[in-house]
Write a structure and sequence with these properties.
The chain has 25 helices and 24 strands. The protein is of the alpha+beta class. Among the domains are: about 40 residues, no CATH class; about 120 residues; about 90 residues, Calcium-transporting ATPase, cytoplasmic transduction domain A, CATH 2.70.150.10; about 120 residues, 3-Layer(aba) Sandwich (Calcium-transporting ATPase, cytoplasmic domain N), CATH 3.40.1110. The two termini are about 35 Å apart. Pfam families: E1-E2_ATPase, HMA, Hydrolase. Keywords: ATP-binding, Cell membrane, Hydrolase, Membrane, Metal-binding, Nucleotide-binding, Translocase, Transmembrane, Transmembrane helix.
C-alpha cells in the first residue's frame, strides 16, 4: 500500500461485507485486522475482494501471492511484534509480487509498477519517434497503444473498487480521463498522462517504503538466535523460543536476545538503539538489560525475564502499530471531508463539460478536455495522506529516541498541552532515598554509620538499604548484631556488642529522652530541607543523626526550565509531607501539591483538566488512575507495567527532559501536518483555476496530483530527522 487512499479502499471494501466489524487497516505495516462472523462471510471472500483491488493478502505465517510487507525475516518478525488479530489475515514479510510496490528486498524497477513505468515510457518514446520520422496518423495509433497498455491495470482496479461500492477512486478518475482524451483525439496527452501517473505511483511507493524503514529497523534489532546455557553447557536456539527464567550467554559484541537481568559479569551495554541514550551503561549483577541492546565489553550471563512477544522491542513495535490505528481527530476530519470532496469535484467536472457548450455554444472538445483535467486535479490522495504520513514519521522518529506515543490523537493532545503534572517519587526523583547528611553527636561519622548499619542489617526497608549502602561506601567497620527487630512506626532495634541500640524517628528518640535542644534544632533544620531524619542511639546516649532524601534526577530542574521556555507550567503531585514537598519544589522552581493519596492525585488532575490541557507524568501503580484521567498520560520507562499500559505515551530513557522533547516532537508533527494540508489544497486550488481557464492541461493536472502526493510524503519524512532534544 502506497498511500492512505490504499488503506481506505481496503477498509471500505471489507467493512461492507456482512459479518465483518472492527476493521483496521494499518498503512505502515500493511496489516489487516478484523472481527469476522464466518457464518456470514468466509475468509476466502475477504481475501478475494482484497486481491480484486490489486493487493496481496495471506493468513499469518504464509506467503502472499502478490504484495507483501514488510517486517523482515518472515516468521521471526511476525512473532516479534506480538500482535494478534481475530481473523488472522495479514500480508507476510519480505515477499513481493506482480502488483507490488518496492519491497524491502527489491528495487523499484523490479516491481510490477516499475516495469509498467519502463514499458509505458518506452512505448511513449517510440510513439514520439514515429511522430518525428513517420506520419501523424501512425504516431496517433502508437500513442493510443501506449495509453491502452498503461491504463489497463488501472482500469481493472477501478472496476474492482466500483464493484466494492467505491466508484470515486483515483483509478476511476484516471480511467475516465485517459478514455475521454482518446475520444476527443488527445491520444498523445493521454499516453503522457498514463506514464506520469505510473511514475507518480512508483514515487509514492518509494516514499512509503522509506517511511516504513523505522519500523523495520526496530524489528531487526532483536537477533535471530541466542546462546542458551543449560547445565553448564551452551547451545544456539532461535531467540523467539526463549522462555522466562532461562539463562543466556551474551558475548562481547553480541546483541542481547531478550529482556533480562544480569546474573554474572560486568560490562558496558550500548542501549542507544532502544532508548536513544548514546552513552553505554554499566551493567552489573542485578541490572536489567533490554533486548536489542549491544554488549560492548565483557561476557554477561543473563536470566530471561520476558518472553519474545513481550520484550521491549516487541512492545515498541506493538505500540507503533496500535498508534497507527488510533487516528488523529484531524485525520478523521480530512477523511470525512475527502468523501464529500471527490464527488463534489466530479459534479463540478460534469458541469464544466456540459454547461459552456449547452448554455453558451462553446466547443465540446475544449470543455470536455478541461473537465477531464479537472477530474485528475480533484483526486484527494495528497490531502488524505497529509496527516497519516506526518503521524507515521513522528511516531517512528520518537520510537528511535525512546519517545513512544500511542497514535495521532496522542500527538495532537501533546502538542496542545499547557500544563504538566509530575508524580514525585520515581519520576522527578530517583525513587530511592540516599543518605545526604551524617551528624555525629557523641562519636565519629564512621561510628554513627557502623552502629546504624548493624541495627539495620537484614532489613529491606528503603531507608535501611540507603544507610547500609552509605556505610559500605564509607568503609565503616562491621559490627555483629543480634535480636534485631522492627518497631512499627518507630524504627528498628538490635543488640550490638552486648548493648541494645536503636535507629528510629526523632520523636521516638525524644520519647527515650536522648534528644537534647541542640540535636532537636539540627533535626528541624534538616527536615525543613525536605530530608527524612533518623536518630542513632543507645539506651542513654544519642550517637548521631542520619538524614536521607530521595534526590531529584540530575535533569529535573533543566526539564522544568525547558517546559517553561515552551510556555508550559509544571506542578508536582506527591504523597509526601508538606515540608518535604515544599523544599524539593522550591529547589526545582515548580509548584506542588502534597500529602495526596492516589484518589487525591485524580481529584487534582480533574480540577486542572477542567480549565487546562494537562499532561500527567508518572511511574507507579498508584499513578495509573491519574494517568488515565489526564488529557495525556506519560509513563516513565522504569515504571510498572500497569502505568505503561494505562498511559498514552512512554519515555524509555527515564530522562525528565524527554517530556519537553515529546512535546517538541508533537508540535513539530502538527506544524508538518498544517504544511502538508496547505501544500495539498494550495496546489489543487491553483491548478483548479488554471485548468478551468484553459491555461493548464491534462499532463499538468496529473503532475499536480502525483506531485502534491510526493511532496506531502517527502515533507512528512523530514520528521524522521527531527531532533526533539534540540531547544528552539
Amino acid at each position: 500500500m502506497d498511500c492512505a487512499s490504499c488503506a481506505g479502499k481496503v477498509r471500505g471494501a471489507v467493512e461492507r461485507l456482512p459479518g465483518v466489524s472492527d476493521v483496521d487497516v494499518a498503512l505502515m505495516t500493511e496489516r489487516l485486522r478484523l472481527t469476522l462472523d464466518e457464518g456470514q462471510t468466509s475468509r476466502n471472500q475477504i481475501e478475494a475482494i482484497v486481491k480484486r483491488l490489486g493487493y496481496g493478502i495471506a493468513a499469518k505465517g504464509s506467503s502472499p501471492d502478490r504484495k507483501g510487507f514488510v517486517l523482515p525475516d518472515d516468521e521471526q518478525a511476525s512473532r516479534a511484534d506480538g500482535s494478534r488479530d481475530a481473523a488472522g489475515l495479514e500480508p507476510n514479510a519480505g515477499s513481493t509480487g506482480p502488483e507490488s510496490g518496492p519491497g524491502p528486498g527489491s528495487r523499484w524497477y523490479q516491481t510490477a509498477k516499475g516495469r509498467l513505468v519502463i514499458g509505458t515510457g518506452l512505448l511513449l518514446a517510440a510513439a514520439w519517434a514515429v511522430k518525428l520520422l513517420a506520419s501523424q496518423d501512425v504516431a496517433t495509433w502508437a500513442f493510443i497503444l501506449a495509453t491502452l497498455i498503461g491504463v489497463a491495470p488501472i482500469a481493472r482496479r477501478a472496476v474492482a473498487s466500483a464493484r466494492a461500492g467505491m466508484p470515486f477512486t483515483i483509478e476511476m478518475l484516471m480511467t475516465i480521463a485517459a478514455s475521454g482524451a482518446l475520444v476527443i483525439d488527445a491520444a498523445e496527452e493521454a499516453a503522457l498522462v498514463v506514464f506520469l501517473f505510473a511514475v507518480g505511483e512508483v514515487l509514492e511507493g518509494v516514499a512509503a517504503n522509506k517511511a516504513r524503514d523505522g519500523i523495520r529497523a526496530l524489528a531487526r534489532l532483536v537477533p535471530k538466535t541466542a546462546i542458551l546455557e543449560i547445565g553448564g553447557r551452551t547451545r544456539v536456539i532461535p531467540a523467539d523460543q526463549l522462555q522466562v527464567d532461562q539463562i543466556v550467554l551474551v558475548r562481547p559484541g553480541d546483541r542481547v536476545p531478550a529482556d533480562g537481568e544480569v546474573i554474572e559479569g560486568t560490562s558496558g551495554v550500548d542501549e542507544s538503539a532502544v532508548t536513544g541514550e548514546s552513552v553505554p551503561k554499566l551493567k552489573e549483577p542485578g541490572a536489567s538489560v533490554f533486548a536489542g541492546s549491544i554488549n560492548s565489553e565483557a561476557a554477561l550471563r543473563v536470566r530471561v525475564t520476558k518472553s519474545a512477544e513481550d520484550n521491549t522491542i516487541a512492545r515498541i513495535i506493538r505500540l507503533v502499530e496500535e498508534a497507527e490505528s488510533a487516528r488523529a481527530p484531524t485525520e478523521r476530519f480530512i477523511d470525512r471531508f475527502s468523501r464529500i470532496y471527490m464527488p463534489a469535484v466530479v459534479g463540478v467536472a460534469v458541469l464544466v463539460a456540459i454547461v459552456p457548450p449547452l448554455a453558451f455554444g462553446q466547443g465540446w472538445d475544449t470543455w470536455i478536455y478541461r473537465a477531464l483535467a479537472l477530474l485528475l486535479i480533484g483526486c484527494p490522495c495528497a490531502l488524505v495522506i497529509s496527516v497519516p504520513a506526518s503521524i507515521a514519521s513522528a511516531l517512528s522518529s520518537g520510537a528511535r529516541r525512546g519517545l513512544l506515543m500511542k497514535g495521532g490523537a496522542v500527538i495532537e493532545a501533546a502538542a496542545a498541552t499547557t500544563h504538566v503534572a509530575f508524580d514525585k517519587t520515581g519520576t522527578l526523583t530517583h525513587g530511592r532515598p540516599r543518605v545526604t547528611d551524617v551528624v555525629p553527636i557523641s562519636g565519629s561519622e564512621t561510628e554513627v554509620l557502623a552502629l546504624a548499619a548493624a541495627v539495620e542489617a537484614g532489613s529491606s526497608h528503603p531507608l535501611a538499604e540507603a544507610i547500609l549502602s552509605r556505610a559500605e561506601a564509607a568503609g565503616a567497620p562491621f559490627l555483629a548484631a543480634t535480636a534485631a527487630k522492627a518497631l512499627p512506626g518507630k524504627g528498628a532495634e538490635a543488640v550490638v556488642e552486648g548493648e541494645t541500640a536503636w535507629v528510629g524517628s526523632p520523636r521516638f528518640a525524644g520519647e527515650r529522652g536522648v534528644l537534647d535542644d541542640h540535636a532537636l534544632r539540627a533535626v528541624v533544620g534538616m527536615e525543613d530541607e525536605g530530608k527524612t531524619v533518623v536518630a542513632v542511639f543507645r539506651r542513654s546516649q544519642l550517637v548521631g543523626l542520619v538524614a536521607l532524601r530521595d534526590e531529584p534526577r540530575e535533569d529535573t530542574a533543566r526539564a522544568v526550565q525547558q517546559l517553561k521556555a515552551l510556555g508550559i507550567a509544571s506542578v508536582m503531585l506527591t504523597g509526601d509531607n508538606r515540608r518535604t514537598a515544599a523544599a524539593i519544589s522550591a529547589g526545582l522552581g515548580i509548584d506542588h501539591r502534597a500529602e495526596l493519596m492516589p484518589e487525591g492525585k485524580v481529584a487534582a488532575i480533574r480540577e486542572m483538566t477542567a480549565r487546562d490541557r494537562v499532561m500527567m507524568v508518572g511511574d507507579g501503580i498508584n499513578d495509573a488512575p491519574a494517568l488515565a484521567t489526564a488529557h495525556i498520560g506519560v509513563a516513565m520507562g522504569s515504571g510498572t507495567d500497569v502505568a505503561l499500559e494505562t498511559a498514552d505515551a512512554a519515555i524509555l530513557r527515564n530522562r525528565v527532559t524527554d517530556v519537553a522533547g515529546k512535546i517538541r516532537l508533537a508540535r513539530a508533527a502538527m506544524a508538518n501536518i498544517r504544511q502538508n494540508v496547505a501544500i495539498a489544497l494550495g496546489l489543487k486550488a491553483v491548478f483548479l483555476v488554471t485548468t478551468i481557464l484553459g491555461i493548464t492541461g491534462l499532463w499538468i493536472a496529473i503532475l499536480a496530483d502525483t506531485g502534491a502526493t510526493v511532496l506531502v510524503t517527502l515533507n512528512a519524512l523530514r520528521l524522521l530527522a527531527f531532533d526533539p532534544e534540540r531547544e528552539a
